[in-house]
Design goal:
There is one protein chain. The protein is of the alpha+beta class and 108 residues long. It has a single domain, classed as 2-Layer Sandwich (Translation Initiation Factor IF3), CATH 3.30.110.70. Helices cover 34% and strands 25% of the residues. Strands 1-3-4-2 form a 4-stranded mixed beta sheet. The N and C termini lie far apart (57 Å).
């Protein structure tokens, strides 16, 4: 009985996540999109942004994503609509921390 209830609850949560009903991630209209340099031609550059998250190493992709999310939050607080990561910004192998950096842009 308990296993059946647990499975039904997990199925419901999975369905809600897949359909986007649960509010996860950016829920405002001011979301910042990660873009390529060619996608922001004609946009206003708002400045450079950098974020470092400790504990890279084996969790490099997870910690790099956290650093990138911090950059997107900073860009949003600046009023940016897009964020272009620098070409050398990315997860590194066996580092002590991960750093994301790039430039925030605002769509005209």
């Amino acid at each position: 009985m308990i296993a059946t209830i647990f499975n039904k609850r997990n199925t419901l949560i999975s369905a809600l996540l897949l359909t986007g009903v649960l509010p996860i991630g950016c829920t405002t209209s001011n979301c910042v999109s990660v873009a390529r340099p060619d996608e922001v031609k004609g946009f206003s550059a708002m400045g450079s942004i950098k974020s470092t998250v400790p504990l890279g190493g084996l969790f490099r992709n997870l910690t790099y994503q956290a650093a990138l999310d911090n950059c997107l939050k900073k860009a949003e607080s600046m009023g940016a609509t897009h964020f272009v990561p620098d070409p050398d910004s990315g997860a590194t192998f066996l580092s002590l921390s991960e750093t994301a950096h790039g430039t925030a842009y605002r769509k005209p």
